[in-house]
Amino acid sequence: MLNMRLASLVSGGKDSLLATHLASEENEIDCLVSVVSSNPDSYMFHTPNIHLVDATAIAMDLPLFKIFTRGEEELEVKDLIKGLRNLDVDGIVIGGIASSYQKKRFELVCEELGLKLIAPLWGKSDEEVMKLAMEKMDFIIVKVSAMGLSEKWVGRKMDEKALSELKKIKEKYGINLAGEGGEFETLVLNAPMFKKRIEILESHVVSDNMSAVMVVDRYRLVDKG
């Protein structure tokens, strides 16, 4: 089914925005939807720098609908259903790659609401996703939470050198190269659908023994020129 009007679930990270870009090649992205969880360890949704999703929406010149949740397991799915009922669209776009846990719940959401589920990245290899994301977008790592990924990765732009290093870490520790297992989270600064790019002006890092997160304090939108 082509030429559908879609709502794309975006977090500002590479997977959701890459999926949005791919879905837009055959269908209309009518709006963006962001789930804002008060639980930083949400079972379903990306949380680092979720406040920058406003900048993402402005950069893409698309309306943004926010759905707020406490991030409690299963209840956050009900919150998503409740929020999506307000939208007049044919389907939703997700950036899922291999998480059956998430995909099954999105399928239940779509079944409940009579929507089509569009998951352009589903089933692709972690390396394929990373290479495609790097080809299409500029993005940085904003959170690490895995063996082999130290605080030095936080704020780092993904490029061929970084990918080569990630491959070595994968060989040693078995991480998912696309961060699908929560090993790292990303922030997209520029993408094909962006009319402006995001420039980070100030940030700080919060770290503990388990993870390190780059928190963006100030940013601006600039012409892509």
Mean pLDDT: 95
Report strand %.
Answer: 25-35%
Q: What is the overall number of helices?
A: 6
Task: Specify the structural class.
Answer: alpha/beta
Q: What does the oligomeric state look like here?
A: single chain
Separation, N- and C-terminal Cα atoms: 36 Å
> What shape does the CA trace take?
globular
User: Percent of residues in helical segments?
Assistant: 25-40%
Most strands sheet: 5 strands, parallel
Strand order of the largest sheet: 3-2-1-4-5
* Integer-rounded radius of gyration: 17 Å
Low-confidence sequence ranges: none
The number of E-state strands comes to 9
- Listing every helix as H and every strand as E from the N terminus to the C terminus, the arrangement reads EHEHEHEHEHEHEEE
Walk me through this protein's architecture.
The protein has 6 helices and 9 strands. The radius of gyration is 17 Å and the shape is globular. The longest helix has 14 residues, at 100-113. The chain is of the alpha/beta class. A hairpin with a 4-residue loop joins strand 8 and strand 9 (212-223). The mean pLDDT is 95.
Task: Describe what is shown at a glance.
The chain is of the alpha/beta class and 225 residues long. Helices cover 30% and strands 29% of the residues.
Structure characteristics:
alpha/beta; 5-stranded parallel β-sheet
Write the layout of secondary structure elements.
Blueprint: E1 5-9, H1 14-24, E2 28-37, H2 53-60, E3 64-69, H3 75-84, E4 91-93, H4 100-113, E5 116-118, H5 126-136, E6 138-144, H6 160-173, E7 184-190, E8 196-207, E9 212-223
Parallel strand pairs: 1-2, 1-4, 2-3, 4-5
Antiparallel strand pairs: 6-7, 6-9, 8-9
Helix pairs in contact: 3-4
